[in-house]
Design goal:
Helix content is about 55%, strand content about 5%. By secondary structure, the chain is of the alpha/beta class. It is globular, with a radius of gyration of 25 Å. The model has no long low-confidence stretch (mean pLDDT about 90).
Amino acid sequence: MKKLLETLKKQDFQDWICLVFYPMVLLYRLPKAWIRSLWYARILITGKWNRYMGFNPKNALNSFFYRTQWFNINKYGWSGVSSVIGLGNYPISRWFHLSTLSSCLYANAGATTTLLGTMVWVFSHLIWLNDEINLFWVLSIIITLFFSSTAYAMAFTQQNYNILGWMFLPLALFLVLNQYYALAAVVWFAASLASITVIFLSLPLMSCFALSTGDYEVLWLMLPAVIKIFFHFLPILNSSGFRTVINIAKLIGFTQREVRYKRHSMKWTIFNLYFTALYFTVCLLLWWLTDQLPLLPVVALSLFVVNQLFLRVADEPSMIMLFISTLVVQILLAPPGIIEWVIFWLAVSPIPVFLGLAKNKEKKSNVTSIDCHPPFDHSEIEAGFEGFFSKVKSGSQVLFAFKDPGNIYEQIFDGYRFTIEVPLYVAAKKGIHLFPDWYTVGDTNYHGARNCWGNKLSDVIELIKDWNIDYIVIYRDQDEIINSDWALYFDVIESFNWAQYAEALRAEPLWGSDRGAPVFYLLRLKNIIRKKMLISKKI
């Protein structure tokens, strides 16, 4: 709320006019942004897809999280144990939610995957072109969806590998509603090959549909997909079993018992309030216009609220796609009308600032403007970190000295979460165990776990003794000098200055607006200090 209020204070008179009339303003701004971004995306036709994990710098660099996953899957196999993530002995089988196919595609062609996946999701609704529904109505709804802020965000700034599952949902809903049950079972199974999230969220959707219609056969259609997903869980149950299940329950907010890092964002934030109010109003208006409860959108909205407030099983983009997918079906089945179209446009084109689309120029964010998003080439930043770790031997442990987040989940990585995924990936490739990472968080999410946090010199020395490491990475503001006390213990090996990549990052900071570009320093413990530590241990 505070951040939004600060943004609104920066709006001039013209910006406020655009905000008040934003549905009409977006009618010309969104097509313009789509056309420009697609024009820039033509570079993807030439190949080299592995250089573009996304279009938006923040989303692209954060998506190295998935590239690290694929690297470990490819190297160690699903039954293997990784020595370069978590605490250094992480079972790959814990990634029950991942698909080999979607992980491989997204890790090697992130930008291409989200763009094409979103386009398939939109245009798969063409299957509704039949004699029972007005041709013009179907085409107008599909075109409206394509030029919406929702579709634009999913293609260029918000989605990840899950888009490969979501693109099957429109076809699955069509086949279920039109009773093509055999084909529906095949499509649900195909979706399960790409994303467990889609099946997990579709199960309560289809259950409510079955209860409403009395047609319980629609649940049997999902059985092949459910069985397939069940086999994802078998390696977990055979290895770490109950402990892994408990760790997952803690991370998604199912239980707060003995939780070290507690989520504070699962509440009525401005984001949750806005989308809940918007989608609730849309459902209410459709109910009033058609005199029929829009069952599927209502169930999707209920799942959105549960996910955001009580049980975090999916990210916001997935919940948005679930609701919009059901809404398209509801609108297509409704009688054509200008009021219905306006309601649909309001639902699929929320204010850009809530989807991370608002243009940010000279620290002045216009809440209704939309940035153009060319494919983001991350190769320069990746090469920078290749040099950063060039003097570290394979098999080494490197501590990333982050400030202790206390018991607050949202303070993990001290506001620099978008800067850590590239170094984590590069380190993993080189056989270096750089930690803590998100898997370390999961493995230490209980009271009494080994500590891996601290960025003060005294804290770092204790961590070095406890974890037996030779290298650490620390961060400082660009103008901040490393305290001379550190020089007594460490030698500076390399540095990585994020300010040097400001132009490549398109002036979009990966950290808080109140902080400058950080500098990462790679430090090595001096040999004489290492010997003293060994002697003190023996004593």
